[in-house]
Amino acid sequence: MNNRESFSGKLGFVLSCIGSAIGLGNIWMFSWRLGQYGGAAFLVPYLFFVFVLGTIGLICEFSLGRCKKKGSYSGIKEILEEKNVPFKNIISTIPTIGLFGILIFYSIVVGWIIRYFCSAFAGDFYKVNITDYFNNFVGTSSSIIWHGLAVFITLAIVSFGITKGIEKLNKVIMPALFGIFILLMIRSLTLDGAMEGVKYLLIPDWSYLLKPITWVMALGQAFFTVSLTGSALVVYGSYLKDDVDIPSSALQIVIFDTLSALLAAFIIIPAAFAFGLDPCAGPSLLFITVPSIFKSMAFGQIFSVLFFLSIIFAAVSSAINMMEAPSEALMNRFNLTRFKSVLIIGLIAFIAGIPLDLDMNLFSKFSDFITIYISPLGAVIATIVFFWVYGVDKARKEINKGAKHPLGKWFNPLGKYLFTTVSIIVLILGIIYNGIG
Ligand code: TRP
Questions:
Q1: Closest ligand 1 atom, CA of 228?
Q2: How many Å is the Cα radius of gyration of the chain?
Q3: Which of 24, 224, 310 to mutate to test the pocket of ligand 1 (most atoms within 8 A of CB)?
Q4: Is the Cβ–Cβ distance between 381 and 76 less than 8 Å?
Q5: H helices of 123-231, where?
Q6: Mutational test site, ligand 1, from 100, 170, 227, max ligand atoms within 8 Å of CB
Q7: Closest atom of ligand 1 relative to the 229 alpha carbon
Q8: What would the pLDDT profile of 18-69 be if each residue is shown by its tens digit?
Q9: What would the DSSP string read from start to end of 140-168?
């Protein structure tokens, strides 16, 4: 296939990957973990893991995609076929299935966010008890229509393709997201009592560095936040021209992802302190605590509209990456048009998600199963296939194709031994701790 689409250049590619990386993990998990695991002390293991391992992981997935100019499913299958590795069909499907699983439950949350954006716009938070509002919506049939809308928006963007859909959108919404985040952070830091939150985030409690849990959570966060699943970034890498510098792109993506997580923390935590609310993790932070903050804030309605708009940007730019990978696999496997593949993937994701719309228990079981077992396994598969089966020397050659500062031989053990081992450790720790990403 020589008429394969490609990103127009490095900028579009990097912004699209930043779009994938910045998601709910940056917003509802990072800020909470930062405060919970020793404040600034948490940054020590986190920055180390995300800058070293996150960058290597990104480099691996992008180059795996680019070397065969194929997404995870077809690319891995081709490499396994060349080396006559058994079980190639199952192995090559796992990373993409994992990502498809994430798409199924993630779209539901995107639906909740769209609904909250509309509610913010209409000023509904002023009229209701927010806890009841959340409980009467989530886990009930009234969320289905919003879920459908989320899938539809994602599908519409992905069906326009790489340059006209995914890249174009990210070029607009990523800068907008950073603009809104900076504005919201200024608002949050100037609230009365916000400094308590800043202290909570910044005063390091070094004793946390002696606790294994701090390191485990930092590691899980580092892998999840840059979207390492052995599939999402492989497909973006597969649309990359050979002259694009992969190592420097990876580093830029990690820098902006980390910045956004820090901004989110400095928006949410100081505001929560200013209004005496508990900065918790997960859906209740975004859907109960945050709206309560806006309710008591001067000009809260404008800020709540902006806030939920930026969360839509963060979530949709991740969802389109999740939809692109299985759609590309289908396109390649059955020779379908982009539009047909995307439609099929979108429809199945929507229908499969409906039982989860209706039952939050099932929702957590399903999302745990995917994020604890399948997608970390996908990341392990991609690593082993690239550094071991394809071969670390060839892998490094591929990585260095467009690189200004090519990686030397010293990189071989980092990729082949260190990174492979750590990916396996992430999978095992996730199982032991019941989820770390
Ligand atoms: N990185 C995203 C976040 O921080 C979550 C994520 C994990 C993701 N795996 C992904 C996004 C794959 C897109 C594709 O929230």
A1: 9
A2: 21
A3: 224
A4: yes
A5: 130-135, 144-159, 168-189, 194-202, 212-225
A6: 227
A7: 9
A8: 999 999 999 999 999 999 999 999 999 999 999 999 999 999 999 999 999 9
A9: SGGGHHHHHHHHHHHHHHHHT-IIIIIIH
C-alpha closest to that of 406 among 48, 54, 59: 59
Q: Ligand 1 pocket: which residues have CB below 6 Å?
A: 20-21, 23-26, 99, 102, 224-225, 227, 229, 232, 318, 321-322
* Residue 2: per-residue pLDDT: 57
Query: 330: how many CB neighbours lie within 10 A of its CB?
Result: 21
DSSP class of 437: -
CA of 16 to the centre of ligand 1 (A): 12
DSSP state of 211: S
Task: Assess whether pLDDT exceeds 60 at residue 1.
Answer: no
Closest CA to 312 of 107, 12, 13: 107
Residue type, 286: L
Q: Which residue lies with its CA nearest to atom 11 of ligand 1?
A: 318
Give 80 Cα–ligand 1 centroid separation in angstroms: 26
Provide the mean pLDDT of the chain: 96
**Alpha-carbon gap, residue 252 to 249, rounded angstroms:** 5
383 falls in which pLDDT band (50, 70, 90)?
A: very high
If one counts every other C-beta atom within 10 angstroms of the C-beta of residue 437, the result is 22
Of 90, 60, 423, 42, nearest to 246 by C-alpha is: 60
